[in-house]
Specification:
Distance between the termini: 16 Å
Radius of gyration: 14 Å
Oligomer: single chain
């Protein structure tokens, strides 16, 4: 793995601070691993309330959005160039 695609909507951890976005990106960089956050478009907690009817994410509706498809294509393009792991 030479790249991490972080798809967490909220790249934060109360219990494991080393996995918060900035410290995690820094530790990956120190190990020579690229980090990219894609959570705004690919995360499971969408900001658009219409995508979470009744408080539950509608993943099928999320996957149909142009933003989701475009961001996923960016992840796939990066993965075609270097070994990439998706993190959630």
């Amino acid at each position: 793995i030479t790249s991490i695609a972080d798809v967490r909507s909220i790249p934060h951890s109360r219990f494991c601070p080393q996995f918060r976005r900035d410290p995690f990106a820094a530790s990956l960089a120190a190990a020579g691993i690229d980090y990219a956050w894609h959570g705004a478009a690919l995360g499971g907690r969408p900001r658009d309330a219409a995508l979470s009817p009744g408080g539950k994410p509608d993943y099928a509706a999320m996957a149909q959005r142009p933003e989701f498809r475009a961001e996923l294509a960016r992840v796939f393009d990066a993965a075609a160039e270097r070994p990439t792991a998706m993190m959630c």
